[in-house]
Amino acid sequence: MNNKLPKTVGGWGAIRYSLKMAQRAGGLWPMLKALASKNNCKSCALGMGGQKGGMRDEKGHFPAVCNKSFMAQASDMQGAIPKDFFGRFDVPTLSKWTPRELELSGRLTQPLLCEPGDTHYQAITWSEAIDQVVNKLQSISADRSFFYASGRSSNEAGFLLQLFARMFGTNNINNCSYYCHQASGVGLNQSIGTSTATIDLEDLDHADLVFLIGANPASNHPRFMRTLMDVRRRGGQVIVINPARERGLENFSVPSDIRSLLFGSEIASLYLQPHIGGDIPLFKAIAKSLLVDKGCLDQNFIANHTRNFAEVEKDIKAESWETLESASGISREEIEKTARIYSRSKNTVFVWAMGITHHTFGVDNVQAIVNLALMRGMVGKKHAGLLPLRGHSNVQGIGSMGFTPQLKKAVLDNLESKFPVSLPTKPGLDTLGCVEAANNGEFDFAWNLGGNLYGSNPDSRFAQTALAKIGFSLFLNTTLNQGHFLGRGQTSLILPVVARDEEPEPTTQESMFSYIRLSSGGLQRYSGPRSEVKIIAEIAQRVQENSPLPWKSLSETGNIREVIAAIVPGFEPLQNIDQTGEEFHLAKRILHTPQFPLPDGKASFKVCSIPAVRRNKKSEENSFILMTIRSEGQFNTVVYEPDDRYRGVNSRNVVLMNEADIKKMGSNDGDLVTIKNDTGVMIGQKLQAYPIKPGNIMMYYPESNVLVPRQFDPQSKTPSFKSIEVFLEKQL
C-alpha cells in the first residue's frame, strides 16, 4: 500500500504540473503575464492578486500562487469551442462526457439555445438570446422562479442579480455555500455573532498551534501549506484531524521555499484519525480532559465574555470515556495528549473545511469546535481564533452581497430607504429546497450565475429528473459543464461570459479573511462573451421598464459599488475603491477583542449531542461509512485531470479503503466492486488501499454524488456529503 504514495507532495511535481497548465494556455510567459495582472485569483478564497499586484497576498508576500491558480487561469486562456462543435455532438452524446472532457472543450463564445424536441444546442445571436430571457420572465409569476450563484462571480454581479430577483418579486435566491460552508456560517453566527473567520492572515504568523480539522489544503488550498510550514518552523505545532492520512498533511514541499522544495517540510506534529462523523465525541473528549485541571481554562474570559458554560460543562462531564472513545475512534491516551498540547498553547487557531460541514450535524460540529476555543479564550484576541477554509474565490462575497433566501434586516431597510421600493419579506428556498421544489413542478425559470448546480447536488439521478422539469434554465458560464446537459430545463440557454481578468470594468471580491480586493479587468480574449453585469442590467432594464431603480446606470460597476457602499454595512470604503485602489478588511468581522456582536455582547457555549452514525452493523456484511472527497487535479465540480498525484491514484472510479478492510472482504487491491445504498448504485469501482480509518471509505465528488442521499443539516440545510452508509459487493 505505502509504496504507491509519494514520500512528499507539492514541490517539483506541482511546478511541473503548473508548467503543463501554462503550455495548455499558450506558454509560460502569457500565463505569468495573466497571473501578474492586478486581478484576484480565480481559485480558492485564500485570495491573492488585486492592487498589490498579481501573485501577492494582502501582506504583500510574493509569490502567492499555486497550481490551482494555474489550473483556473489555463481554463480561461484555452481556445474557443470550434464553430462546428455543437453540430457534430448532440445533447445525448455530450450528456455522457466527463466533467474534464467538457471543461477542456474550450471557451464558450456564443449564446446557445436548446428548446423542447431539439437534439442539439444551436448558436443564436445576443439579441435573440436576451429576447428569450425577457419574454420568459415577463410571462411567468415571480414565485415560480429561482436564482442561484456560484462563488466565482464578482460582488457587483451578485449584488445586481439578487436585487433584480427581489425587484422581480422572489426571495428564492441562494448560492453554492449551501452545499459547502453554510453550516459554518450558521454555527458561528449562533455562537459568536459573526458568520465568518475571526482572524486575519497576519494572525496566523503568530499562532503556536493550529488545529486542522476535516480539511486537506495540500490538495484544495495549496498556498495555506506555507502557513502550516511556517508554524512548524518557528516551533509551533499542527494537529491534523482527518479520517485519512493524507500525505500532503504529513510532508509537503512548498515550491516557493528552496529548503522545503529540496527537502520537504513536516506538517503534522500530531495526526488523529477519527471515524467519519466522529468529530463531536472527539472534541467533547478533549474538553473533558481540559476540565480535569481547570487551571488551563481562561476562567476570566468564560465568566465575563461567555454564557452557558455550566450547561456545557455538565453535558461533557456526563459523557463516559467508553462512549467518547468508541464514537470518535480515538484512544483516551491520544485525546489526553491532544488536550495537553492545547492547554500549553498561547495562540491557537482552529481551521476546518467540509469534513466538518458536510454532515446532517454540521452546525453542531462547528459549535463543538467553538466550544473548545471559548474554553481557553482563543476567540476575541489577536493571533488566535476561528478560520473556516472556504472554497470559491468569492463565495464569501456572494453571501455578503445578499445572495441568500433572506436579506439581513439592515440591508433590507437600507434598500427600501434608498429606493422607493417594497421588497418581498417571505424567506425564499435554500438551494436543495429549490431542487426539491423543481421536482414538484413548481418552477418555470431558473437563473444560474456560473457554477454547476447539477454537479453540486446530492442524489445525481434525482437532481437530473428535478432540474429537467424547470420550464426555462438560463446559464452564465465561461466553459461547458455537465449541468448544461444533465441539469438543463425544458428550454436551456447558455450565455458566454468574460473571465475576471477580461472584465471591461473593475470588479471586487472578498476573501475568507474578509479582505476586499479590486480586480482591474483587462482585454477580452474573444469577441463573443459579455460581462455578467452588462447582461443582468440589460435584462433587468427590459423586464422592469418602469422600475424606480436606474438599471441602465447600474450596468457600470462603479455605480453598483456606490449602491453597495450605501446599502451593505461594512462596505462603505467600496464607494471609491476604483479611484483610491485601497483594498480593505471589512469592519467588525475580525475579532481581536472579546466584544461579540450578540445582544448581550457575549459568546455562547452550545451543547452538542453525539450524533448517531450507523456503522459496521453486524447484521450487514461489508457495510461502510463513505465520505466524498476532491482530488488534487480538480476544483469543486471542475475536473482538470483524471489522476490524483498526491494519493497515488490514476483514476476517479476508485474506492479508497483501508488495506485490512480489503482483506476482510476477501478481496485484493485493484479488484472491482459494486457500491450501493438506498440512493444509488455504482458499478465497476476499483478498490485501492489507502491509510484511512477502518470501517470508512472515500470516493471522488461529483461522480459519487449518485450515492449521496438528500439528507441535510436541519439548521443550515447543507446536504450530508459525508457520513453516508454504503454497502460493497465483490464483482466476479
Can you summarize this structure?
By secondary structure, the chain is α/β, with parallel strands linked by helices. Helix content is 34%, strand content 16%. The chain has a seven-stranded mixed sheet with strand order 3-2-16-15-14-4-5.
Overall shape: globular
Share of helix, binned: 25-40%
> Care to count the β-strands?
28
- Radius of gyration using CA atoms only: 25 Å
- Assign the CATH topology of the largest domain: Rossmann fold
Number of domains: 4
Description:
The protein folds into four domains: 2-77, no CATH class; 111-120 and 147-180 and 394-570, Rossmann fold, CATH 3.40.50; 182-389, 3-Layer(aba) Sandwich (Dimethylsulfoxide Reductase, domain 2); 623-730, Beta Barrel (Barwin-like endoglucanases). Helices cover 34% and strands 16% of the residues. The strands form seven sheets. The protein has a seven-stranded mixed β-sheet. A six-stranded mixed beta barrel has the order 21-27-24-26-25-28. The chain has a five-stranded parallel β-sheet with strand order 10-7-6-12-13, with helices on both faces. The mean pLDDT is 95. The longest helix has 14 residues, at 11-24. The radius of gyration is 25 Å and the shape is globular. It is built from 30 helices and 28 strands.
